[in-house]
């Protein structure tokens, strides 16, 4: 099943799950965030969900706890949200909020990304179904499909096969999208969720800066006046914005959040100084995070060193994550050096080290790829190994492809790591005969299953189709033959049809 067909299968299932809710009346229409569809190369999909609007049970003793967890989720603090929803699950199992709490616990794990978190999300959704079989299942089923799609895009053959089976006859729906998706398929299988989350959060930063607390008319009028002055006379507006940001009183926090965005929009001599001050000194985390983000647009050595200081000495994970992203956007050798050093810090959170490795992979330089290969050998954490493999796959060089294939052949690595290496080497589309010969070299059944899946992703490669046919005809393991038959059936290739007819006649 090619990336096109995998994307189509996910879309078909999405449409299929949406249909039962058609005509339900006054339900909220939800456009899912762009990371899911853009990663598949699809347009935004609108789905009607039964529980799009949270129920409100103010008399429920757990009301305040639930709302606190939702507030963390809405702010993008998904790790904290998952923790709070997990506590809610254990303490308030009989609350009327319990079904939605499990749903948002799963959603938070999904937003955090990574195989382990995806599987935790599926476990939460399964627990929801087991505990509350009568609860509305539409949004939970939709989220499960999204998670299975994310796992499939990262090389989980079972998730991909499950999606294809679930799509069933809805494959005809998916096929209608294939022509428009063809140009985007090279990037469809890559794991872009980390980058998408950063972009989404950045967009929310802008929206919060201009729209937060719309009801506060006085702040809105002041912002409108500041914006108008900025457009007419930026040099005179900047000192006023500086004074706004230097007023650290709690009553001024909403105006500061909006002012930092206005500062970022004008390239004046004062912009860097004002943003640096806000990033270092403002008591409000939201203001500091916005200032750090916009420092990514200030192309100076001083900004880079300030971001380095925030990353190295900061204690707030969200702020450090913003600093890593901002450094990645500078694309200077100094910023890359800072990210390389941080990726090796044993005392740093694994999640943040993984972010640094991810963004190094987006800087497609010989020095970075050489560094990532060297770093991989020294890493012990499976999560960071996975990040390094993905980062290497972003630069399509034969050296990287051979390195990943070497990991797949290394018996000292875990089977899961070797499966990931196979998947990403297959996505690079540089290896040809070496990749096909590998099937006869490995003895582990899981690796053979993964190879069958990797071949299925290269359905436009005649050699891949021929390899699947060879497995169908000559493999002695019935289960492996069955998997090869399944994926051949997804290709619509005339050669595959002929082989399947042979099996039927036999």
Q: Please, could you describe this protein's structure?
A:
The chain is mainly α and 506 residues long. It is 72% helix and 1% strand. The chain has 30 helices and 2 strands. It has helices spanning 3-18, 34-40, 63-74, 78-91, 98-112, 115-131, 138-153, 157-167, 171-175, 178-181, 185-188, 193-211, 217-232, 234-246, 253-264, 271-281, 285-295, 301-313, 317-330, 333-343, 350-362, 366-378, 382-393, 398-409, 415-428, 433-441, 445-456, 462-474, 478-488, 494-505; strands spanning 29-31, 46-48. It has a two-stranded antiparallel sheet with strand order 1-2. Helix 6 runs antiparallel to helix 7. The longest helix is centred in the middle third of the chain and has 19 residues, at 193-211. The chain is globular, with a radius of gyration of 25 Å. The model is unreliable at 1-53, 169-192 and 210-216 (pLDDT under 50).
The geometry reads as globular
Number of strands: 2
Question: Rg, please?
Answer: 25 Å
Please, what is the average pLDDT?
76
Largest sheet: 2 strands, antiparallel
Query: How much of the sequence is in beta strands?
Result: under 5%
Give the % helix. over 70%
Q: Which structural class matches the secondary elements?
A: mainly alpha
The N- and C-terminal alpha carbons lie at a distance of: 25 Å
Low-confidence residue ranges: 1-53, 169-192, 210-216
| Helix count from the secondary structure assignment | 30
